[in-house]
């Protein structure tokens, strides 16, 4: 599943569509495609894992889910979920969720919890985190109401970098460690973004998909943990279990 930094890269890749008029919209998305015809894109934004294509009175929200992809001025043999056709351009989205948001985005999204937002607010994120004392750390970092944009890579890397065992309960983390978790999630998201832009992200992974702990030089554990049951890679020796 593409994480927040990948959606920011997508947002930039299609930024030149701002101001362009849609001549035709097609695909199997369960939305009123006729609503898009002859509408001009006023802005392209992102929030967490959501790409937001904005118009005067509504917004298209695209979530790439686990296997979603997109192509600019190119097509796959498969039918698109959504195809937007312009005078000299085309934008295709595949295997994704598409909905229309009619409310103002500020009523729908809290920009202060988006890890890559200019409006990100560490204190608010910390308060959000404290609301879930019984939540496991591995679940907290995947909770979009706390860390919007965080995914499994960010989860594994942040927990390793902060020496926190994924089965630690949020309420058992010392305040200093909670603050460290929040700050590292923000910092790593920007590191992820820069490494992804230059295609060197995997080279910087310390834990995700790795077999050996780079600190202790012993085998990593690989387990499907928490309510999310996503893959966790962790070291029982240097990642402390707070319980």
Average pLDDT score: 97
Oligomer: single chain
Shape: elongated
Largest sheet: 4 strands, antiparallel
- Our count of domains comes out at 2
What is the rounded distance between the termini? 30 Å
Would you give an account of this structure?
With 243 residues, the chain is an alpha+beta fold. It is built from six helices and ten strands. It folds into two domains: 105 residues, N-terminal domain of MutM-like DNA repair proteins (Alpha-Beta Barrel); 124 residues, Orthogonal Bundle (Helicase, Ruva Protein, domain 3). The strands form three sheets. It has a four-stranded antiparallel β-sheet with strand order 1-6-7-5, with no helix packed on it. Helix 1 packs parallel to helix 6 and helix 5 crosses helix 6. The radius of gyration is 20 Å and the shape is elongated. The two termini are 30 Å apart. The mean pLDDT is 97.
Write a brief caption for the model.
This protein is α+β, with helices and mostly antiparallel strands and 243 residues long. Helix content is 25%, strand content 19%. It is built from six helices and ten strands; from the N terminus they run H-E-E-E-E-E-E-E-E-H-H-H-H-H-E-E.
């Amino acid at each position: 599943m593409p994480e927040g930094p990948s959606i920011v890269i997508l947002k930039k890749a299609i930024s030149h569509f701002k101001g362009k008029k849609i001549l035709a919209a097609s695909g199997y998305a369960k939305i009123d495609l006729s609503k898009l015809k002859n509408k001009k894109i006023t802005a392209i934004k992102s929030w967490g894992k959501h790409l937001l294509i904005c118009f005067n009175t509504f917004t298209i929200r695209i979530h790439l889910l686990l296997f979603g992809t997109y192509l600019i001025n190119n097509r796959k043999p498969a039918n698109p979920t959504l195809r937007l056709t312009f005078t000299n351009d085309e934008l295709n989205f595949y295997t994704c969720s598409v909905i229309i948001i009619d409310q103002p985005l500020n009523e729908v999204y809290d920009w202060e919890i988006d890890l890559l937002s200019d409006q990100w607010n560490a204190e608010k994120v910390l308060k959000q985190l404290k609301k879930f004392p019984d939540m496991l750390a591995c679940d907290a970092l995947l909770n979009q109401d706390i860390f919007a944009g965080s995914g499994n890579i960010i989860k594994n890397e942040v927990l390793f970098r902060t020496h926190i065992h994924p089965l630690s309960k949020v309420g058992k983390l010392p305040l200093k460690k909670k603050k460290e978790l929040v700050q590292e999630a923000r910092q790593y998201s920007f590191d992820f973004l820069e490494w992804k832009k230059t295609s060197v992200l995997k080279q910087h992974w310390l834990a995700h998909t790795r077999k050996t702990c780079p600190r202790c030089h012993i085998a990593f554990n690989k387990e499907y943990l928490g309510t999310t049951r996503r893959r966790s890679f962790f070291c029982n020796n240097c990642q402390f279990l707070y319980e």
